[in-house]
Fold:
Amino acid sequence: MLNKRAILETVAEINYTLHQMAVQGCRGFESSQHSLKTLSRWGQDAVSLSEKLEEIRLDLGDCQRCKLASGRKHIVFGNGNANAKLVFVGEGPGFEEDQKGEPFVGPAGKLLTRIIQAIKLSREQVYICNIIKCRPPGNRDPERDEIEACLPFLERQISAIKPDFICTLGKVAAQTLLKTDASISKLRGRFHEYKSIKVLPTYHPAFLLRNPEKKRDVWEDMKKVMREYRYED
Ligand code: URA
Ligand code: URA
Structure:
């Protein structure tokens, strides 16, 4: 969750410093009134975005909308940057995620962290979440009724964040978001669209742990994301 006060303080400090530098006649950077106003709005935007996500989390409450509620320890809502340009969507929490209430913190999560670092980003810059928010028993695939109960919340999270890119991890995330039965090997490696957001399906990091020879494909996929991500900077 974003710390609102820290953001506002940081933005205020940047504003103050730019203003002071402009007053002292420093040149070579943009410090017009217009820019300073834009900058202070960034802070407000980030705060209102994190409030939107908090509101969605509050609506979810102590969710009992599907049968997974009875076996979970924690709801895994998702975390990262409320203003992210890139969102990763996995399948659902595993054992460690259920214990901690955070997405992708187990072995697959460690690999995901390395994949994110390989494209020169950090987990703090992106947003990470799942199709379903509670752990299925024995990590089985989510069932249709569970996805139906949970998906509206993910859809609201994505609408709040408004990313430019979504990277889906594995079969379930790709098929669910893109509403298709096509296989992951057919879907991966090219951009699709979800509500005008570019979606790039790739393999799930847990699948990569079992099939390391597929890492090369994922690297090709991530290079595509990286290229477009930088292009739109
Ligand atoms: N696998 C997923 O799909 N999501 C997680 O959060 C962890 C493992
Ligand atoms: N099957 C899956 O469910 N996910 C993958 O990433 C690959 C195959």
Q: What stands out?
A: The two ends are 24 Å apart (CA to CA). Residues 170-171, 184, 203-204, 207 surround uracil (ligand 2) (CB under 6 Å). The chain has two domains: 4-49, 54-232.
